[in-house]
Amino acid sequence: xxxxxxxxxxxxxEILALSYGYPHYTARQIRIxxxxxxxxxxxxxxxxVGKPGKLTxxxxxxxxxxxxxxxxxxxxxxxxxxxxxxxxxxxHHEWHNGGGYWGRRLDDLxxxxxxxxxxxVFTALLSERVYKQPWPPHEATAYIQKQxxxxxxxxxxxxxxxxxxxxxxxxxxxx
Length: 175
Fold this sequence. Notes:
mainly alpha; 10 helices; single chain
């Protein structure tokens, strides 16, 4: 994921936080912390991060560690922003039903982790990768909707899809 995509994930998470009634200051902290969610990938071998095909089981286990590595890299970040950034790094691949990387349920984690999780997936779907072409927006939104109750909470999906369809700040991110 390039820097611009990390900024988009952060901005989407910020917009979600604002729509959930978070104060501007906290939503801004979420944006900053969210933009660091994949920092641990810097320490994953480039032949795994940039592999054009499906990862092997061993490669996937190595890739999963970017979450732990990211949280460790941000260990020196102090205050609420540092704590938030570490929590996001560690848990942004968790699922609503506990089926993510480490088996934690998103509902047991702070809202801001859920905001980043859905923002990260949506941005990834709309982005080109060495192993895939960008999805059309209608397919990405259909995927998010299909994951309600599994990967994401149904309430979060409902709010997110409303924002994607009606909030000009969101559509502007993908032009």
